[in-house]
Amino acid sequence: MVDLVVGGVTRVVVGRGVLDAPTVLGDASPSICAVVTQPAVAVMAASIADRLEASGVHAPVLEVPEGVAAKAMATVEEVCRTLAGAGVTRDDMVVGIGGGGVTDLTGFVAAVYLRGIRCHFVATTLLAAVDAAIGGKSGIDIEGKNLIGAFRHPARVVIDLETLDALPPPLIREGLAEALKAGLVGDPGLFELLERDGVDAALDDVVPRSLAVKARIVGGDFEERGERVHLNYGHTIGHAVESATGIPHGEAVAIGMIGAGRASALLAGFAGEDRQREAIARLGLPVGAPPVERQAVLDLMRLDKKRRSDDIRMVLLEAVGRPLVTVVSSATVDAALTASGIPGGDL
Question: Fold identical between 2-165 and 170-339?
Fold first, then answer.
């Protein structure tokens, strides 16, 4: 079992068969632990809720929509009203059981309901385990990705490797995109592992190494004033493609990393563009975007949270493990979008 602390606040437990009530609750002792989940993991959530009830904690289950619909303001309001109706107080807590949509929603609700209540996560997808559930960032979508949100660490994150091993291949690949990103910005050995083993890389190695990268970076820059921005490698283009096309987050990040790799080669002398592309393909991830209007992607890129004034900033690589953040010119954006498979004319 792996047990680490992120930001001095979040205790992350990684192991097998760790979905019992004591592990999910940790040192919390609420009267009510509201469970927020989605249909895809409703059976697992109901089982955990039953174990919580058996331990003496009332555990009402709130089921929210699948996918990005969970990250809507209407869903936030519905969950908050349900918590109030259930009598949840500041001495109680909420646990999000599911993927990144559920952890984003639950984290945001926990940050704003009664001005803040305790929050735990049970990450049931690889994407949530290596990225979304870790680091205390929550986000709700309006015009663009995560334009409403909060910085607030969950108190506990539980990751059951048996659950992750049983995921269908598309969900494994999606999570491996974020693991590859972690390797590219912070752990060359992790990048080499995924480059070598592809989708056969052991999650017992991939998950702890990915978590270690994020824990180190978040621990030094919780509110994304500096180094934490590096974790957005591939996301400036990726988030825009995701919003414009509706493709899964991990696939969009893979496409975004292709564009960021080209920009890195042009501006930072990155010599690993081809290696990165081959590693992405080896993971079964796309190396080009589906049909999408370039202007729609550009408009969404300009809504990116990392922008300053009207400039577009991107996270680039000088080498694997050596990221930087810089303003990019229109010509560089043009080249990056073309490399990402988004054709178009001059900007």
Answer: no
- Catalytic annotation on 71? no
Selecting among 153, 181, 209, 249, the annotated active-site residue is 249
Annotated catalytic, 228?
A: yes
The predicted pLDDT at position 347 comes to: 41
Q: Give the SS3 label for residue 302.
A: coil
Give domain limits for the chain: 2-165, 170-339
The string of pLDDT tens digits covering residues 173-208 is 999 999 999 999 999 999 999 999 999 999 999 999
Which residue has 């922008």 as its token pair?
A: 307
Residue 64 is predicted with a pLDDT of: 96
Active site residue 230: no
Active site residue 66: no
Which fold, 2-165?
A: Rossmann fold (3.40.50)
Of the ranges 226-230, 239-243, 304-308, 335-339, which one carries the lowest mean pLDDT score? 304-308
CATH class of the domain whose range is 170-339: mainly alpha
214 part of the active site: yes
Residue 53 annotated in active site: no
Burial of 166 (0-12, 13-18, 19+ CB in 10 A): exposed
